[in-house]
Write a structure and sequence with these properties.
The complex is a heterotrimer. By secondary structure, chain A is of the alpha/beta class. Chain A is built from 12 helices and 12 strands. Chain A is 33% helix and 23% strand. In chain A, strand 11 (311-312) and strand 12 form a beta hairpin. In chain A, helix 7 runs parallel beside helix 8. The two termini of chain A are 28 Å apart. Chain B has a single domain (9-29, 36-260), classed as Rossmann fold (3-Layer(aba) Sandwich). In chain B, the strands form 3 sheets. Chain B has an 8-stranded mixed beta sheet, with helices on both faces. Chain B has a 4-stranded antiparallel beta sheet with strand order 4-1-6-7, with helices on one face. The termini of chain B are far apart. In chain C, helix 3 (17-39) packs across helix 12 (258-285). Chain C is mainly α. Chain C has a single domain (17-289), classed as Orthogonal Bundle (MetI-like fold). The chains are: A alpha/beta, B alpha/beta, C mainly alpha. Chains in contact: A-B, B-C. At the A-B interface, helix 8, helix 9 and helix 11 of A face helix 6, helix 7, helix 8 and helix 10 of B.
Chain lengths: 331, 344, 290
């Protein structure tokens, strides 16, 4: 495979992040492994409760009590971020890894002008002088498609519309030229025409700056247009991963198949949508064996006993399933 | 008089304007000509026309702020329209007061977007579902039948009898939406206004709810007004589709016509922007720049001209009206007269 | 009941020392108020039980102390301990009743203002704003001098001062509540406004009031004590803790400190307990702090 030759920027090994709440331990991320090469976009897909956002927060070291990283490694260029102290993580956040959230208002300070917030990133993470920083900010705002950038630097977040705000957040995320961007549902709150603008912008910026990206989203359509690889999470586990087109066109895991089939598609119309029966099990009290077996049409006795592990399937795919699908087979 | 051949829902020139501001102190402004009272008006819906037959599903699509939710809430008479006609089963209810509306509410119910906010956290499921029905029952005999009806409704939407005694927080998003659907069905309405009923749900649950809604339509002959921002959902469920922009309807057509031959530039832009899991087809790329103008100050002429790649001077001068272009398709765009301008 | 002991609320309560101390103090005063009169040797308001020979006896651990009056006596030979127990009754009675009345009136006005908006809202909220721009003790003083003294008058004054905070809180929650889809669903269901308010709005705006109400009892005890201390509060025949302090204050500098210091300590402990527990409730019931 061609991509194995590329150096790995980030390797996540058997990551486990638990939340110890009053009602019990929530194993939000329970043994997740994946890696990302430089310049690659990886889509992290799953439904709510899948643990996809927690993976992003874990990489940034932003898990607060009652949450805790219980085990595993997060290797950024070989350095284990799980073991890194808060000071080291602060250096890394914003400079090596930056984050774009769903709601731009959570990452923008409403009391400071956009220019000041951008300048702060550069002051922390670069050696530039005041003038050079200003120029860099103007250029960055222009490159994310905000006109009259000089003027707009003085504006406050509330003076921007939702789409413009997300552009500002992306500009800030790109400022320190990070090697990895974690985008958590970056376009979910936006309208479809604005979404397509932002996605195009992100794709172009990442290609230009040579950064990698983890795109965390519930939206398979968005991910299939953006990502090189897709990792599908279910109940805190990776159930399938592989190259985008292979995974979308002929997934090996019944859950992925079910997700794809439940999306109504513009190009073909069935009278009824395929649906995954039932709901996600209570994550505090997961069943023995395969987490998906109660909703899976292919489940057999084995699935109730032995938890499947992620194993290589055809092509670039690997799936955690005892009875993987062959191409063209429906669940 | 009630006319049996009348459409289930018909709106003519429906208009919903909200005046903002509140008290005198809050509206006081100091301009160059001395103090004056500001009267900001949000023009959320500006003269919308459409009708829905019995058993028909009509969808309204558009982006946030286009007024589609306001249309839904005005039709459900959560708001009182500021203008136009609103005929439900042939009866104009636009001016109805509370008492006059009560019998109409047995014909029309609503499903809401947010499965978490649409159920009172302090009510049990059986009380939630029974609420519309209890307003329609008058005799003690009718009231005695309510519990059995509730049980049957819950079973129909895929919940069971023991769920009736639980509180909403004990359910998942999809199950809550089923409760909301059972509540709407309790009075056996002919029309259900569904305001983004699946947009807050996970995709696998979304499919369950869409299938359920379709089955219920077939079973009860329901008509839906289905509000959504998601074109692929609308494509799946609707018989005809109205596209809204800034409180105006810009295009209205049967589903297949709209998806195969969209005429309005905004509809075309929406279709080209919709992400798809399929490999990119050779589809038209209309990329919009800028954002939706404020409903506080509408642009002159065509509401879409500020973002339209085709706009010319006529669009600023003259507001296009909806015109029939055949096959049930109506479009509000000057390009219909001057198709030679339709080049990017 | 077992569900309560297994709840997260109880779990956090067990881990919060301030909540434990606060509720212990509150329990002590509740007990004192309920059974106090039956365990003291003397009813301080029964003239026949008093003996002038016992006047100004110091606390039991000082020279001349009498084992019968372990916190000493006042000028009429009243047992200070018994007076405190009887006084705490009156203070707490006033605090609780005024709180309930304020809460009822304030909640009603807040619901009306929030639900109907417009002119009613403007009038109610402007009155509240004006009232908030004066210190509450000043308003209470002014009212008391207008309507005269007495337990009922104190209750009126405290209620007139206290409703504002409920009205403002309830109006705010009501405004956010009526935007909720379940209130709109109730409209679509055909519920009349009064029923929507009662079934859908009211139950969902009450939680923040629990904290306000708890702390307000403490505030009211203090305001009533101040009024009584200033001589416009309760009558001499129904001495609250505040009046006890005032009565003892006249002889405070003659070395007879115990007649006013012990009632003062009692007020402090009572209010301290209420506030500690109120703070715990605030942390527990406010999801934003979690």
């Amino acid at each position: 495979m061609a991509d194995t030759a590329q150096p790995k920027l980030l390797e996540v090994r058997n990551l486990r992040t638990y939340f110890h709440t009053f009602a019990g331990t929530v194993k939000a991320v329970n043994g997740v492994s994946f890696d990302i090469a430089s310049g690659e976009v990886m889509g992290l897909v799953g439904e709510s409760g899948g643990g996809k956002s927690v993976v992003g927060f874990s990489i940034l070291g932003l898990i607060d009590s009652p949450g805790k990283i219980e085990g595993g490694q997060i290797l950024l260029d070989g350095e284990d971020l799980v073991k890194a102290g808060e000071t080291r993580l602060r250096e890394i956040r914003g400079r090596d890894i930056s984050m774009v959230f769903q709601d731009p208002m959570t990452s923008l300070n409403p009391l400071h002008s956009v220019g000041r917030q951008m300048d702060e990133v550069l002051r922390l993470h670069s050696e530039l002088d005041a003038k050079a920083r200003h120029t860099a900010c103007v250029e960055m705002l222009e490159s994310v498609g905000i006109s009259r950038a000089e003027e707009r630097l003085k504006a406050y977040p509330h003076q921007f519309s939702g789409g413009m705000r997300q552009r500002v957040v992306i500009a800030i995320a790109l400022l320190a030229r990070p090697r990895l961007i974690i985008a958590d549902e970056p376009t979910t709150a936006l309208d479809v025409t604005i979404q397509s603008q932002i996605l195009k912008l992100m794709r172009r910026q990442i290609a230009e700056k040579g950064a990698s990206m983890i795109l965390v989203t519930h939206d398979l359509a968005v991910v299939s247009e953006m990502a090189d690889h897709i990792t599908v999470l279910y109940c805190g586990n990776v159930v399938e991963r592989g190259r985008t087109r292979e995974l979308i066109e002929a997934p090996a895991h019944p859950y992925t198949r079910g997700l794809i089939d439940s999306i109504p598609d513009l190009s073909n119309r069935h009278e009824r949508l395929q649906q995954i029966p039932g709901t996600v099990p209570d994550i505090r009290n997961l069943p023995k064996g395969c987490n998906f077996r109660d909703r899976c049409p292919r489940a057999q006795a084995l699935c109730a006993e032995v938890e499947p592990i992620l194993t290589a399937q055809r092509g670039s795919l690997s799936a955690a399933c005892h009875f993987p699908l062959s191409p063209g087979e429906t669940a | 008089m009630i006319d049996a051949t009348a459409p289930m829902l018909e709106v003519r020139n429906l208009e919903m304007h909200f005046s903002l501001g509140g008290s005198v102190l809050e509206r006081l402004r100091f301009g160059k000509k001395g103090p004056r009272l500001d009267r900001p008006v949000v023009r959320a819906v500006n003269g919308v026309n459409f009708s829905i037959e019995r058993g028909e599903i009509m969808a309204l699509v558009g982006e946030s702020g286009c007024g589609k939710s306001t249309v839904a809430k005005t039709i459900a008479r959560i708001y009182k329209p500021t203008g136009g006609e609103l005929r439900i089963d042939g009866e104009d209810v636009a001016e109805h007061d509370f008492a006059q509306m009560l019998p109409v509410r047995a014909k029309m119910q609503m499903i809401f977007q947010d499965p978490y906010a649409s159920l009172n956290p302090r009510q049990k499921v059986r009380d939630i579902v029974a609420e519309p029905l209890l307003q329609q029952t008058t005799t003690a005999a009718e009231r005695r039948e309510v519990p059995a009806k509730i049980e049957a409704l819950l079973a129909r939407v895929g919940l069971n009898a023991e769920h009736a005694g639980r509180y909403p927080h004990q359910f998942s998003g999809g199950q809550r939406q089923r409760i909301g659907i059972a509540r709407a069905l309790s009075v056996t309405p002919g029309l259900i206004v569904a305001d983004e009923p699946v947009s807050a749900l996970d995709v696998s649950i979304q499919a369950q709810i869409l299938n359920l809604m379709k089955d219920l339509r077939d079973e009860f002959g329901l008509a839906y007004l289905f509000i959504s921002h998601d074109l692929s959902v609308v494509h799946h469920i609707a018989d005809k589709i109205g596209v809204m922009y800034l409180g105006f309807m810009v295009e209205n057509a049967p589903r297949d016509v709209l998806f195969s031959r969209p005429r309005h530039p905004y509809t075309r832009a929406l279709l080209s922007a919709a992400p798809s899991i399929k490999e990119k087809r050779d589809k038209e790329e209309i990329e919009l720049t800028g954002e939706v103008p404020s409903a506080l100050s509408l642009p002159s002429g065509c509401c879409f001209r500020t973002r339209c790649p085709f706009a010319w001077d006529r669009c600023a001068a003259e507001r296009p009206s909806l015109r029939d272009v055949g096959e049930g398709q109506t479009v509000a765009c000057h390009l219909i007269d001057e198709p030679e301008r339709d080049v990017v | 009941m077992t569900a309560f002991f297994q709840s997260e609320f109880f779990f956090n309560y067990r881990r919060s020392s301030s909540a434990m101390i606060g509720s212990a103090l509150m329990a002590f005063f509740a007990l004192a108020v309920l059974v106090g009169p039956f365990v003291v040797s003397q009813n301080p308001y029964d003239i026949a039980a008093l003996n002038l020979m016992d006047s100004y006896k110091p606390p039991v651990w000082l020279d001349g102390g009498d084992a019968q009056f372990w916190l000493g006596t006042d000028g009429q030979g009243r047992d200070v301990w018994a007076s405190i127990l009887y006084g705490a009754r009156i203070s707490l009675f006033i605090g609780l009743v005024a709180m309930v009345a304020s809460c009822a009136i304030g909640t009603l006005l807040g619901l009306i203002a929030g639900f109907y908006g417009g002119l009613v809202d403007s009038i109610i909220m402007r009155v509240a704003d004006i009232q908030l721009s004066f210190p509450s003790i000043l308003i209470a003083l002014f009212l008391m001098s207008a309507v005269g003294t007495g337990v009922d008058k104190v209750l009126i004054a405290l209620t007139a001062v206290g409703w504002v905070v409920y009205a403002r809180t309830v109006r705010g929650s009501t405004l956010s509540e009526i935007e909720k889809e379940y209130v709109q669903a109730a409209k679509v269901a055909g519920l009349p406004n009064a029923k929507i308010i009662r079934k859908h709005v009211l139950p969902n705006v009450l939680t923040p009031l629990i904290v306000i109400a708890t702390i307000q009892v403490g505030t009211f005890v203090l305001i009533e004590a101040s009024l009584s201390f200033l001589g416009v509060g309760v009558p001499i025949t129904q001495p609250s803790l505040g009046l006890l302090i005032k009565n003892g204050f006249d002889v405070l500098f003659s070395g007879l400190w115990w007649t006013s210091v012990f009632p003062g300590v009692a007020i402090m402990m009572l209010v301290f307990g209420i506030n500690l527990f109120g703070d715990f409730l605030r942390d527990e019931l406010n999801p934003r702090l979690k």
